[in-house]
Amino acid sequence: MRTQPVILVLNSGSSSVKYKLIQLKDETVLLEGRIQGIGESSATHHVSVADGLTGKYEQPQSAIEILDHQAAFECIADDLQRFFKQSSDIQLNVIGHRVVHGGAVFFAPVELNNDVLTTIESYQHLAPQHLPGNIAGIKTCQELFSEVRQFAVFDTDFHQSIPEHIYRYAVPGDWYENHGVRRYGFHGLSHQYVAQQAAHHLDKPLNGLNLITLHLGNGASACAIKNGQSFDTSMGFTPLQGLMMGNRSGDLDAAVPLYIQEQTGISAEQLEHQLNFESGLVAITGTHDMAEIQNRAEQGDKEASLAIQMYVHQLRRYIGAYLVSLGRVDALIFTGGIGENASIIRELACDELGRYGVVINSEDNKQLKDAVSAIHHLRSDVPILVIKTDEEKQIARNIARYL
């Protein structure tokens, strides 16, 4: 019997792990799952297989307690063992890990070894919400699947095409030359995936398209794509810059952290934690759940209404900047948890952009039908698309190309 080569893709975060088992030949998803609430008082584990059979694990804390990533990946290993016992013609050939920051060293998928992992570990301070979970996932998989080739695929890869006059900051040369201070950009896997999906939907070659892509989730970033390549993006040296996010401040006068440190005497570590974990939507409303914020705003909650106004203002500011920067825009794209689900955010972001050829269809915006949904009005010069992102599938594609 001929075996089917498959890749296991792991998207490990600070308190969650998403995973998919993907057939390399045709990108069929054979198994997918998600573990949420790692290290919290309770956790959920959901897994489904390609034939439609679904097992959902939402047991009491005593039965589903997942204290760390080691325990989470042991659950995943159990899923895989059960799956492979029932599917003897399928063989795990490669494991791909999403890694948020590749720094100034990694510009493409790289096979993992001790030296590579040590370098990734040295970037943890640049992405404190993400890299610890990425690294924990890598280390655990190296123990559990030691015979399988494993690769890191970086969120920064897609943005390597950004030109120097955009990725450089106007800071002393020593900062750039000796410390790597420059714009790297993040959410590259998502921006890359939705750009490819848009090209397919529009039936046009990607290398001829100018796009504005908005990845809006707990983390959020905008990307200007010129001729199919990343040209500019809102995130910078770390995932802290740019749009207002769930827990992160986004754009901020660089003097503010210095002033707060001077006035309060807090440490650099405390300051970093507040900017990365206690800012953004959480700072204004106490929650990063946009659905809850929207409900509260509809009930007259002033903080919730303020948060939505702040969030949308920053979105519109980047959309406007990229409309000017690109000159011609072939599509405006929303993706990510908020981008795909919060119709009010899409509506407000596109409000009054008609003079620039961007006109939303309010009814279509409220009723998405497909993985790629068009929500623009017939008189809109610029298509407006909502595209369901798939970072795991993009990781599989990038590794397949590399191999």
Automatic annotation (TrEMBL):
<keyword id="KW-0067">ATP-binding</keyword>
<comment type="subunit">
    <text>Homodimer.</text>
</comment>
<dbReference type="GO" id="GO:0016301">
    <property type="term" value="F:kinase activity"/>
</dbReference>
<feature type="active site" description="Proton donor/acceptor">
    <location>
        <position position="155"/>
    </location>
</feature>
<comment type="function">
    <text>Catalyzes the formation of acetyl phosphate from acetate and ATP. Can also catalyze the reverse reaction.</text>
</comment>
<keyword id="KW-0963">Cytoplasm</keyword>
<keyword id="KW-0460">Magnesium</keyword>
<feature type="binding site">
    <location>
        <position position="391"/>
    </location>
    <ligand>
        <name>Mg(2+)</name>
    </ligand>
</feature>
<dbReference type="InterPro" id="IPR000890">
    <property type="entry name" value="Aliphatic_acid_kin_short-chain"/>
</dbReference>
<comment type="pathway">
    <text>Metabolic intermediate biosynthesis; acetyl-CoA biosynthesis; acetyl-CoA from acetate: step 1/2.</text>
</comment>
<feature type="binding site">
    <location>
        <position position="18"/>
    </location>
    <ligand>
        <name>ATP</name>
    </ligand>
</feature>
<feature type="binding site">
    <location>
        <begin position="215"/>
        <end position="219"/>
    </location>
    <ligand>
        <name>ATP</name>
    </ligand>
</feature>
<dbReference type="InterPro" id="IPR043129">
    <property type="entry name" value="ATPase_NBD"/>
</dbReference>
<keyword id="KW-0479">Metal-binding</keyword>
<dbReference type="Pfam" id="PF00871">
    <property type="entry name" value="Acetate_kinase"/>
</dbReference>
<feature type="binding site">
    <location>
        <position position="11"/>
    </location>
    <ligand>
        <name>Mg(2+)</name>
    </ligand>
</feature>
<dbReference type="InterPro" id="IPR004372">
    <property type="entry name" value="Ac/propionate_kinase"/>
</dbReference>
<protein>
    <recommendedName>
        <fullName>Acetate kinase</fullName>
        <ecNumber>2.7.2.1</ecNumber>
    </recommendedName>
</protein>
<keyword id="KW-0418">Kinase</keyword>
<feature type="binding site">
    <location>
        <begin position="337"/>
        <end position="341"/>
    </location>
    <ligand>
        <name>ATP</name>
    </ligand>
</feature>
<keyword id="KW-0547">Nucleotide-binding</keyword>
<feature type="site" description="Transition state stabilizer">
    <location>
        <position position="248"/>
    </location>
</feature>
<keyword id="KW-0808">Transferase</keyword>
<feature type="site" description="Transition state stabilizer">
    <location>
        <position position="187"/>
    </location>
</feature>
<feature type="binding site">
    <location>
        <position position="98"/>
    </location>
    <ligand>
        <name>substrate</name>
    </ligand>
</feature>
<dbReference type="InterPro" id="IPR023865">
    <property type="entry name" value="Aliphatic_acid_kinase_CS"/>
</dbReference>
<comment type="similarity">
    <text>Belongs to the acetokinase family.</text>
</comment>
